[in-house]
Automatic annotation (TrEMBL):
Residues annotated as domain ABC transporter: 20-252
Keywords carried by this UniProt record: ATP-binding, Cell membrane, Ion transport, Iron, Iron transport, Membrane, Nucleotide-binding, Transport
InterPro entries registered for this protein in UniProt: AAA+_ATPase, ABC_SmlMolc_Importer, ABC_transporter-like_ATP-bd, ABC_transporter-like_CS, ABC_transpr_FbpC, Mo/tungstate-bd_C_term_dom, P-loop_NTPase
Name by which UniProt lists this protein: ABC transporter ATP-binding protein
GO MF annotations in UniProt: ATP binding
Sequence similarity: Belongs to the ABC transporter superfamily.
Length: 368
């Protein structure tokens, strides 16, 4: 676990961040193709989130990076050196990698100090104690040095697990759903603290999550997986504003999707003729409108425009979720409006779509 560089790292108090690269990585279990040609280049010190639905291969990719699973083909490169290929396979303990899983996996019969010291086997006793105490201090658990894990809250256990993973000053941190065991309120603060600590240690980090908001909060970039392939890699802004297909778009925002015809910069949809940045030939397309991009106001007598009827309304605190029946649309149109924006007795409404919340996708391939 302790890398050749860790002597220097001990002086500077940070890890030496590694550059990590996956090249045309495949993983098969029998005839099941779990990873299918993963190409990903992660910069030193970058925090990248692997996002995707259940079974898309996120954990498998993390296990290959850690050396817990040999890939079927392809190459893993760290700092320009192959660490897993058809010629070489560096075992996990030689990769300078810190691992953290969702169940924290603390040893129940050991104190927090001993849990954190566990991976520091190559150091002297005094040095490993000092390093463990540093890591425990860094996560703010100094008052629990001699406690056993069962007296710690979920959030404290998460921090203890983080201290244990960081104590050997790994060059790469691999985290599999590290916040999924925590309740929502705690999750936000622990996530922010963890990110701050990762920045401080400068370890290159891969975080597995199935939660798009979590990926947006944590990742410098996000790699979205589906069926063992990376569908798109980008910053949260790129993924949200310029999704390459409907799958990506629907991962980052709640959408209404309509069949429409696009022509001369306008899309003809059940929500009206909408302006679209497109100069292509006239054709059938899928039009996606974010639920946050639908404005409603109470309809007046003889109002024209696109009319809808509120069929359900749910108060969510800052927002309200509306279901609207709109003529020409089979499914209810969903809108997310600011709470109390629409009078409570309003049943008939006029609908307007904000231009920035309209996205167009070709009806070929995955979007069909
Ligand atoms: N040891 C194994 N043998 C056979 N199939 C496996 C094995 N491990 C994982 N799989 C399969 O590989 C696929 C990807 O699993 P993986 O755990 O990587 O997905 P994931 O995206 O992390 O999912 P989740 O979010 O549910 O954890 C799944 O279909 C899973 O059933």
């Amino acid at each position: 676990m302790v890398s050749a560089t860790s002597k220097n790292a001990a002086r500077t108090g940070v890890s030496f961040a590694a550059e990590l690269m996956f090249r045309d990585l495949h993983l098969h279990y029998g005839d099941k193709h779990i990873l299918q040609g993963i190409d990903l280049h992660i910069q030193p010190g970058e925090v990248i989130c692997l996002l995707g639905p259940s079974g898309s291969g996120k954990t498998s990719l993390l296990r290959v990076a850690a050396g817990l699973e040999p890939q079927t083909s392809g190459v893993v490169v760290m700092n320009g050196r192959e660490i897993a290929s058809d010629k070489i396979f560096l075992p996990p303990e030689k990769r300078s990698i810190g691992l953290m899983f969702q169940d924290f996996a603390l040893f129940p019969h050991m104190t927090i100090l001993d849990n954190v010291r566990f991976g520091l086997t190559t150091m002297s006793k005094a040095m490993s104690k000092q390093e463990a105490l540093n890591a425990i201090r860094r996560v703010g658990l100094e008052h629990h040095v001699n406690s056993y894990p069962d007296v710690l809250s979920g959030g404290e256990q998460q921090r203890a697990a983080l201290a244990r993973a960081l104590a050997p000053r790994p060059s790469v941190m691999l985290m599999d759903e590290p916040f999924s065991g925590l309740d929502t309120r705690l999750k936000d603060s622990i996530r922010a603290e963890t990110l701050a600590i990762l920045r401080e240690t400068r370890a290159t980090t891969i975080v597995v999550t199935h939660d798009a908001e979590e990926a947006m909060r944590m990742g410098d970039r996000i790699a979205l997986l589906n069926g063992g392939r990376i569908v798109q890699v980008g910053t949260s802004g790129e993924m949200y504003r310029a999704p390459r297909d409907l799958f990506v778009a629907s991962f980052f925002a709640e959408l209404n999707v309509f069949d429409g015809v696009v022509k001369n910069g306008f899309a003809d949809t059940p929500l009206g003729i909408l302006p679209i940045a497109d100069n292509g030939v006239a054709r059938n397309v899928k039009i996606a409108v974010r639920t946050t991009g639908i404005e409603v106001r109470a309809a007046k007598k003889n109002d024209n425009g696109v009319l809808g009827r509120v069929t359900a309304r749910r108060f969510l605190g800052d927002f309200e979720q509306l279901s609207l029946a709109v003529s020409g649309v089979d499914e209810p149109v969903r809108a997310r409006i600011r709470a109390d924006e629409l009078p409570y007795d309003a049943k008939d409404v006029v609908i307007k779509v904000r231009n920035n919340d309209i996205m167009l996708f070709e009806t070929t391939g995955d979007n069909a």
